[in-house]
Specification:
alpha/beta, Arc Repressor Mutant, subunit A, D-Maltodextrin-Binding Protein, domain 2, two-stranded antiparallel sheet, about 25% strand, globular, DNA binding, WH_DNA-bd_sf, WH-like_DNA-bd_sf
Length: about 300
């Protein structure tokens, strides 16, 4: 057995560099100076006796062996996180630090109703929130940057456990007095694909909306442009088309002070399941289920 082993910090620096592909951004994400991060990675290379990263003035390129080491480092860091979770799970439930990623089509509409009560009733819980698209949030979960994720299903999550929070209906939003004003309940066949505005890649709501309509041509003709639901609402309010919104956003007042009407979509798939997910076999599973109960009670 080698006398000298890589440190957790060295592996964290290497993973951060691989994720950001830039020494400055990786150092910023690691809360250290660029020289500290660079020195840590060089120490790791010296320790292992190999080159993991090819450096030039403009390009950071990982060697094939470097990519293999990064993959292994992800697993080791996740194991270290789970060791910490094991210790924390032995203490009082919902106390200490908990890192939760939340997707942007949920965060501003659900959390304001829940967090004040959670802070009041669980004062020992230090909840660190990070807003990410579904894909990035799931990646953060499996790489140990997040302990749990609040997102909408269905979505490809890998090996996780989950707890359902609620169902959320999809609605069609369009300008008031639109000459093509649909009836009280909108059928997917009545949606003009040339006017449909959806969120860009990376947002699961886009896939949920397309699945609800079950019209393949919408995928080709819909405008994938919005970076947020608020952006889409502003575009619809300016007469640029129509969009789909989750009912929780409508109920939270996203259409306030606009000239937009929102009506239910008549489709068996016109809803999404809001759920809390976490890594399978996590020692904090019971704690996450308790958190899910708190979120349902909000």
């Amino acid at each position: 057995m080698s006398t000298y082993l890589p440190t957790i910090k060295q592996l964290q620096y290497l993973v951060a560099l691989h994720e950001h592909n830039h020494f400055g951004r990786a150092a910023e994400a690691s809360f250290v100076s660029q020289s500290t991060l660079s020195a840590g990675i060089r120490e790791l290379e010296t320790l292992l006796g190999v080159t993991l990263v090819e450096r030039s003035r403009r390009v950071v390129r990982f060697t094939p062996l470097g990519n293999q080491v990064v993959a292994k480092a992800h697993r080791l860091l996740r194991e270290a996180e789970e060791l910490s979770d094991l210790v924390q799970a032995s203490g009082k439930p919902l106390s200490g630090e908990l890192r939760m990623s939340v997707i942007p089509t949920i965060a501003p509409f659900l959390l304001p109703k829940i967090l004040p009560r959670l802070r009041r009733e669980r004062p020992q819980l230090k909840l660190f929130l990070r807003e990410e698209t579904s894909g990035d949030a799931v990646e953060s979960l499996h790489h140990g940057r997040a302990d749990c994720v609040l997102l909408a299903l269905p979505f490809a999550t890998g090996e996780v456990e989950s707890a359902k929070i609620c169902d959320d209906e999809l609605m069609v939003a369009f300008p008031k007095d639109d000459p093509r004003d649909p009836p009280e309940i909108v059928s997917p066949g009545s949606i003009d694909e040339g006017r449909l505005l959806l969120l860009e890649d990376g947002h699961c709501l886009r896939e949920h909306a397309l699945a609800a309509c079950n019209r393949p041509e919408l995928r080709d003709n819909a405008t994938m442009i919005g970076t947020s639901l608020h952006t889409l609402v502003q575009m619809v309010d300016n007469g640029l088309g129509l969009t789909m919104l989750p009912r929780m956003a409508v109920d939270a007042g996203i259409l306030r002070d606009t000239d937009i009407v929102a009506r239910p979509l008549k489709s068996k798939n016109a809803n999404r399941e809001i759920a809390l997910i976490w890594r399978r076999n996590s020692p904090r599973s019971a704690e996450f289920r308790l958190l899910a109960e708190e979120l349902r009670a909000g």
